[in-house]
Amino acid sequence: MIEELLPDSVVAVEAYGHDEPENATLYPEEAALVAAAVPKRRREFTAVRACARRAMEKLGVPPQPVLPGERGAPRWPAGLTGSMTHCDGYCAAALVRAADLASLGIDAEPHGPLPEGVLESVSLPGERVRLRELAGRYPAVHWDRLLFSAKESVYKAWFPLTGKWLDFTEADIEILVDPAQPSGGTLRAELLVPGPLVGGVRRGVLEGRWTVRGGLVATSVTVPHA
User: Fold this and answer.
1) In which band, very low, low, confident or very high, does the pLDDT at 170 lie, cut at 50, 70 and 90?
2) What is the percent of the chain where pLDDT is above 70?
3) Which of 49, 75, 105, 138 could form a disulfide with 153 if both were Cys (CB 3.0 to 4.6 A apart)?
């Protein structure tokens, strides 16, 4: 599911279900981070890192620990950049050589409405207007959850390039539907703060893709070098 949202240069590995993938293990320094966590948290932590290590192998990089850095962002092996996501019953990791992409972000969420009051706290007035228009045309999609996922992917792509926090209301996201396949499309995020510098050029817009499938919403954002 995630792989179809990403360029061919990106390797994506995903896992479904509530059990840890076969032979999934943690390095000691990873295990220490979740030693006191509840079982569900430990399973998700382990499963998504198993996905990340399989992606490393596919790129010819020896598997190694994935430890959180600043603000919890994963620290990747030298020469790689990537993103991870997990929600109930699903996890995925996407990795790419840093020479091929400047940054990327992925996110998956259960395809259901956001809790009451959350949309107002994570969205802009103009975004809510557009969501109502989309809901009128395509009522089968929970557009509030899709917008939330898109904001998460934008942040995950933004942070490695800037090292700064990006508030939900500092990116204005437009969701575009593929008329031939209304369960998917593209997204465009206009940054309302100075964008990251990539190759000496400031990027004021980040772009990505989305899909709804199998009870999940998935989004991706990729930042090319040029």
Assistant:
1) very high
2) 97
3) 105
Does residue 95 have a pLDDT over 80?
yes
Is the pLDDT assigned to residue 107 strictly greater than 90? yes
CA distance 82 to 183: 25
94 closest CA partner among 9, 31, 211: 9
DSSP secondary structure letter of residue 42: H
Q: Judge contact between 105 and 152, C-beta under 8 A.
A: yes
Residue found under tokens 């999609």: 141
- Asked if 149 contacts 217 with a C-beta cutoff of 8 angstroms, the reply is yes
In contact, 85 and 108? CB cutoff 8 Å: yes
Is residue 63 within 8 Å of 74, Cβ to Cβ?
A: no
User: Is 121 strand, coil or helix?
Assistant: helix
Copy the structure tokens of residue 36: 């006191």
145, 112 in Cβ contact below 8 A? yes
Looking only at the bridges linking them, the beta strands covering 90-97 and 80-87 are antiparallel
- Which neighbouring-strand residues pair with 120? none
Q: Residues 217, 145: contact at Cβ < 8 Å?
A: yes
